Amino acid sequence: MAADGHRLGPLTVSLVxxxxxxxxxxxxxxxxxxxxxxxxxxLFTGAFGSxxxxxxxxxxxxxxLVLTGLxxxxxxxxGVWNIGAEGQFYAGAVAGVWMGLHVxxxxxxxxxxxxxxAAGVAGSLWALVxxxxxxxxxxxxxxxxxxxxxxxxxxxSYVVRWPLQEARGVFPNTDxxxxxxxxxxxxxxxxxHAGFALAMVLCLVLWAVFRFTAFGFGVRAVGxxxxxxxxxxxxxxxxxxxxxxxxxGALAGLAGGVEISGRTFALYEGxxxxxxxxxxxxxxxxxxxxxxxxxxxxxxxxxxxxxxAMQREAGVPAAWVSGIExxxxxxxxxxxxxxxxxxxxxxxxxxxxxxxxxxxx
Amino acid sequence: xxxxxKSFGRLVALDGADLTGHSGEVHGVVGxxxxxxxxxxxVLAGMVRPxxxxxxxxxxxxxxxxxxxxxxxxxxxxxxxxxxxPRLSVLENVALGVRSGGHGFRLPYxxxxxxxxxxxxxxxxxxxxxxxxxxxxxxxxxxxEILKLLVRxxxxxxxDEPTAVLAPxxxxxxxxxxxxxxxxxxxxxxxxxxxxxxxEAADRITVLRNGATVHQCLRADADAGVLxxxxxxxxxxxxxxxxxxxxxxxxxLMRVGATGSHGQAAVxxxxxxVRRGEIVGIAGVDGNGQGELxxxxxxxxxxxxxxxxxxxxIGFIPADRVGEALIGSFNLSENLALALVNDSAFRQGxxxxxxxxxxxxxxxxxxxxxxxSGPQTRTAHLSGGNQQKLVVARELKRSRDLLVARNxxxxxxxxxxEFVRGExxxxxxxxxxxxxxxxxxxxxxxxxxxDEILELADRIHVIVRGRLLPVEQSEASRxxxxxxxxxxxxxxxxx
Amino acid sequence: MFEAVALTAFLEASVRLTAPLAxxxxxxTVTERSGVINIGIEGSLITGALCAALAxxxxxxxxxxxxxxxxxxxxxxLGFAAFVIGLNTDQIITGTATTLAGLGFTGAIYQARxxxxxxxxxxxxxxxxxxxxxxxVPVLGSTLFYQAPTVYLxxxxxxxxxxxxxxxxxxxxxxxxxEEPAAAEAAGIRIGWTRLLAIVFGGTLAGVAGAHLxxxxxxxxxGMSSGRGFIAIAVVVLxxxxxxxxxxxxxxxxxxxxxxxxxxxxxLNTPYPLLLALPYLLTLAALAGWVGRTRAPAxxxxxxxxxxx
Lengths: 361, 495, 309
Description:
A: ABC transporter involved in vitamin B12 uptake, BtuC; 13 helices; B: Rossmann fold; 6-stranded mixed sheet; 22 strands
């Protein structure tokens, strides 16, 4: 008799994984000749040390991570392996900046809406190619989404050097978008822009969709078992896969638009330091749960935000953060799989109990 | 082989099985599904270790712990599920089977080619070397499997249901090959449940039932009737079912055909009518198209040919409980919701009324006595019996017009199975509150359990190679149905 | 005359740029033929680069650097294999984590050792070695046969790997594992062990590729792999998992890169990023079946043993 997963809930897995990561990081830091406590300490204060740090650095860093993490979580939930969040992000950024440069004369609400909408749609379209290749041609989406990432990166290089290059024509970046297109600051005196609120809202909305709606239920079913979804749930699997792909792309694209509108106001190469890939870690640690993504996104935002402080104060190079993020992913994978090994013992106990109960029936 | 015993967990596969194979003979091993034939041969081929009994090869007791041990004693097996790599060529697949284990380097293709040429003459097979296995038909693939085996020059060859995928002409050719191999001095052991083929091919026959040997004889002394009875058991008195006249037709299939996953015709020219209030039983050995047929009846698959008239509210109990009916990581309510997600009574626009779903779940748990530690229990942690109860509860509720059930009591203990059967009977006899028109559901029961079919069905068909053969009311007995199921391509009058 | 010179220069650059890609892609071909997709070769690549840099610095010999670079790549791949084979974790996610870890830790170690001083590292450089008669052939001679030893390694490896995969028993076993592990196991092949060897082989070559990157340019920069590991994945697909075609595909990507530099150097204002994107679009087309039938090893990226839901 087959069993799925293990008795440990997703929260337990994440907490154990985090603890393990912490231990390993401390160990690695110590081997590297750093003082683990002071290094982690300065990382912590760099991220949470003051209210301003928290708001302007950590939370601002968290926004693209939460949005792309959400994109990945939604896709993975349906069994759609969208590794293309990076490319969809850039597609959204390109569309966002293009729209932003053209609607600067409109009132703020319209300008911002148009920009973000363009970004989301572009992200969806970027995801459409791999989606159709999967549905119509049976081509696995892992490689196709990665390929689209590269195309997007080169698209950005092209865009910032030719069509949309700044008026001065000196550097490879676009002009800045006008005031009307920029997201308002949520808390005066900080750099926390409305993108954060948008990200939180979207997380909440998607959580509700998964929990309460028929569509969300369909997504979960398809992700868990396509056969059961088709035969018992009579769910249109292809439609679910397509919608999920598009939503995922839209969220990642939106992340790009939000970065333009809220933080950088212009597009340049390397806008994303690999957020589309880090998003996988964010989503995994959150157990693919939209609400969880809020926390893990902020956690990773803290990591990336505090990196600078850790480098300045404890002398630990900022690149360590990438390493820590990778350790988190590996820890989650390891804990998840290790827990499955415990499965036989747990199940035996359960079997006996069930058998006893069954006899009493 | 003497007194061999083997259990897999709680399932007793072999319970004192005996078999004596002689060289230069074709030896047929027959029995129903689950009789233990494959397991016994797996023991001989070294794939399974017995928990009791003895095995002798040429008089010497042997103990095989892995297939390699059996190979070394000259025993090889051609399995039912092929062990070929589709993307590789015939030559490569044969080479895979011949690996010198350790020499690793240059592939001795020229030597293999020569050997293959020799074997082609011996067996009369004509499969080219360079063709990719995936481009071959099932019959041709089987020939590659046989060639792969023969290249190793075995003394004992075991074939597991080799004719399952063959056309009648190919079956004849294959039997010819068996005879040639036997006259070469080898021993051919043939696992089959198709009596007519065994009677044509074998020199000696052993019959297994419920894991034990119940009959052994020479071909010359064999009689189809005796053998069938030995395989299938004495006739069980049919349970009487209060016959209520059936209502109007609720589902109809006309000349329906469907292709299976390997491109073969899984269902061919099937015509079926189901009426309200009746149970149509379809008996058959697994692998004759039941999957495709049940999916067509349940309206989750479009037939490739023919027409289908189906009602709106259909319930479906699939064959694979854990893979197709339930989602292990979902809890009880969520699994029930699979049936309710498109039911407007449980929806409020885009939202699912989870409280109502939970109420319905509690109802089902109560009614069917599903033993779970709580509604949040993940279905994967339920016992098989409780899982099936959940599936039955869910599907019966939505079978307002039709229920398609495959092996609904498989893996259930006696009381649970009885309960389920009772539910099925109740389902098709209950009328709605207004008896103005007949709204009893009809049931299509597709099962490998003969007793179940005999007990429950009003009308019986047998499915063989994707075709339905009707069984006369008056003749319905284990023996008749058994004979039809085991008949094979020749038709009902086998043997 | 100018055209000939420009052409030669372009070809030379193409070959130079192709070499690391080809090495990584050839290694990944073997890995993927065993049914494992190792996105972590980017991590192996950058680790190989750093290890080579450190080794070359301390030993003064680029040759030592290459060897150590290969070892570095192998170790990273071993880590990947531990998770994917030992714990049966998902190959994609583990590979992504491996790459992140590789990039992160190499950057960290580099910064720690050489600080953010701003001065770029100078390493002993791989000297191009002209092959006796062959390098005198006009045009082709200097492009193909006047290169660093690692490039010659590519020439040898491609046909060698081809022969291994398609003409030896071990290669047959490897391919069987990648296509139909069930059948391979039935034939007595050890799946885990075969895949482990394939993964480590791929990682070693990726490490050598990284070493070439560092020692050919004579320096190490954080993140200098620039996604070449990921590109190698695309190259393997475009090359249909056949070493000879993989080499050709790598050349396609390499020459696109060289062309881009050439155009920039010539001061032409052609939108070269579009040119760089072309090979990826071509790969997509190949996957879609428009450029002949391209099919991955059937068991690629699937877990083994298969998990039941």
